[in-house]
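Recap for those who missed Tuesday's class. We walked through two folding examples back to back. For each one, the amino acid string is listed first and its predicted structure tokens come directly after. Nothing is annotated here on purpose, so try labeling regions yourself before you check the end of the notes.
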Amino acid sequence: MQMYSKIINEKTNEAQVGFGDNKEYFETLGMELKEVEQCRTSGRWYLKGKMPAEEKAADLRETRDFMLSSLDWRFDRYREQKILGIETTDSEQDFIDLLQYKQYLRDITKDPAFPDIQIKTFEEFNTNKG
């Protein structure tokens, strides 16, 4: 199956897309084969590499928020084990590293290159911080 598109907003490069194999049909609609990308948060389609900064920022914030929330269980487990006096495989340094990573994620929007950045995984962050 092919993906066809046409620009519906020249200013923002927003595209209308169609999926199928009937080339002649899509051509009658003014669509052609072009690379496009979809904003996950709005669902809008854009020419590849032409997504507006506010749409990219919304997607990046959503990814960042998911990554932050996915760390919560580790903090909860560490706190419970410390309170209950249970041996843990996480060291105090592991906990500090996670806190620093969470701060990195919170501060990502302050990066001058935001939203044209890639969010580092915990492993990438931990490897490159020293």
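Example two. Treat it independently of the first, because the proteins are unrelated.
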Amino acid sequence: MRKAAICLLLTAILAGCGPAPAKRYFQMSIAEAATRSLPKIDLSLAVEPAAVVRLYDDVRILYRVSDFELDYYPYEFWAQSPGRLIDAAMADYFRKKPVFNRVVPFAPEGTQDITLRSRVHAIEEVDASAGWQAHLAMTLEFVDAKTGKVLVTHTFDKSARMAAKKVEDLPAALSQILEQELASAVIELAQAFEKKNG
């Protein structure tokens, strides 16, 4: 009798709470249009899986309310791990832009001429009273796949204003930062080749 009463009470409480909010999943996507004219590099490229700082290596989307307080959204998630999200977006970027002559799948002993290696230091939403921002910090390295020599290192720590205080604006703002920084890194790589061959 007592057990039945407890079950009835729990059922009533759960029914009163209503259905749980639906989970939502987000991904990054780079636009088709070039941010600026980019140099042509007549070599093949492979994008190595991105390494991610442990705090951010989670499918839950992280938001920060101060330098000391952060949390994860309970119902908003990345469609895949942040590392896979980033390296897929970078590979997509180079497939869309006429920079390298081929973008090939990554393999440690692959056939690529250049490997793009990356580390994600931060990928988050920053909720400030003045407005919300997307924050992305990374190190990008273009590496000679044959010798292992680092050709160019490009490090950035950038924020972009989100159009509204909504988590759904985060992926577009992060994608915009990544697109701009990849363009800058490619220009640095082309300049390194020019200097070497000049």
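Answers for example two:
Helices lie at 2-17, 82-96, 170-197.
Residues 36 and 183 are 8 Å apart (CA to CA).
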